[in-house]
Amino acid sequence: MQTPNWTLLTDLYQLTMMQGYYETGIADQQVVFDLFYRTNPHDNSFSITAGLQQAIEYIENIHFAEEEIAYLKSLNLFSKDFLTYLEDFRFTGDLYAIPEGTVVFPMEPLVRVHAPIIEAQFLETALLNIINHQSLIATKASRVAWAAKGDGILEFGLRRAQGPDAGTYGARAAIIGGCTGTSNVLAGQMFDIPVKGTHAHSWVMSFPDEITAFREYAKLFPDNCILLVDTYDTIRSGVPNAIQVFKELQEQGIHSKVLGIRLDSGDLAYLSKKAREMLDAAGFPHAIISASGDLDEYVIRELKLQGSDISLWGVGTRLITSKDCPAFGGVYKLSAHINEDGVSMPKMKISDNPAKITNPGIKKVFRIYEKNTGKLKADLIALEEETIDINETLHLFDPDNPWKEMYLAPGTYTVKELLVPIFNKGKLVYSSPSTMEIRQYCQEDLATLWSECRQFHKPHIIPVDLSQKLYDLRQSMIDQLVSKKPRN
Fold this sequence. Notes:
This protein has helices at about 10-25, 50-60, 65-75, 80-85, 115-150, 165-175, 185-190, 200-205, 210-220, 235-250, 270-280, 295-305, 315-320, 435-445, 470-485, and strands at about 30-35, 45-50, 95, 105, 110-115, 150-155, 180, 225-230, 260-265, 290, 310-315, 330-340, 345, 365-370, 375-385, 395, 405-410, 415, 420-425, 425-430, 465. With about 500 residues, the protein is α/β, with parallel strands linked by helices. Among the domains are: about 10-140 and about 325-350 and about 420-455, Alpha-Beta Barrel (nicotinate phosphoribosyltransferase), CATH 3.20.140.10; about 200-290, TIM Barrel, CATH 3.20.20.70. α11 links the parallel β9 and β10.
């Protein structure tokens, strides 16, 4: 499928700054930017990073064609020389990222860009748009899947998504986060993910009566026969008519691979338990009971606590829109300049809001695991040149409260570096896994979390610490920058 030209998927000020860099002669100044976020969505203790594959496609296809140049010229903002420069504009830098499907935490770089400032600046808006959206939906999906405790989760939200791209790329992210299928056929084609669905109430209402609608559907799809039973009366009509059609399939010698009912309204806990009794009594103990209708992780958890007999969940609006938290707060900040001799000069942002102070320098992220359990112990943000020797004691401390510290003895922990190379000098050096492979990786990564980290109310927080060198650099730069502020 042809990728559209998303080159102008940017904010105007990126282009005006680019012209400024070009006109002032610093366009080739090498810099480093970090893409990170400050707060987990949904009061969660973690997030799931997603969207890297689409970010790669965007970067690979950056080009200002005649149509884009003509439009920019029409704005009467840009010089002729700058527009001529854009005709050959491409990304020539290095990019590192944490692979999709990875559990991540606030303040650690999800993406690190090392490139000429004019290129690195240009990537900001599109990278944030892509990574923010898919990470948000993947994180929401992981919560829904956790609430379902192993049941299948189908993403049903296309009709309620904020546009075609949000519905399609959101479906991809939902699969990464833990959904088992989607109703979105375009997403199925684009990303080779399972597409699932049954029928609507309009199908039932289009026939003289409910049982005729069920019979016709069963004729068309005998191997995947899930019938929507709440159009008229779930217990008195829908479930009995579904059972009758299931018996007729058996009498015809048809043994459906998938057989079941869907509930879309009413008291789902009561209706599912009653339907289960009726299906079991009729000889269909393996018939699936699925549910849909304004579901999310909280509703599913409550239905589980009420003992519902639902084993397949269709989750739509509240998942695809992340209704309770509609935005992922990713930001993109300058962290270093590289001088002509290749020496890094760290940069940081100082703010009256302490949460908005950034970490300076070129950084990497180490993930620390408890060796005997494989569970995630902590993350450590360090400077690029730093290493960890697992044969030495590791000292970790809270950068905001340094007295909160721990020592990990040699042999008690393992380490993995999270950021991996994606582009080198503008050339793609990374092969993205398939969406289903990313989903599997995500499930494995989620399994490294302690169960306390996944509870919805006051979850356990995994520490994200700074190395001593990075901490010292940060503190010295704060002292230096604050001392230069004018006094009132």
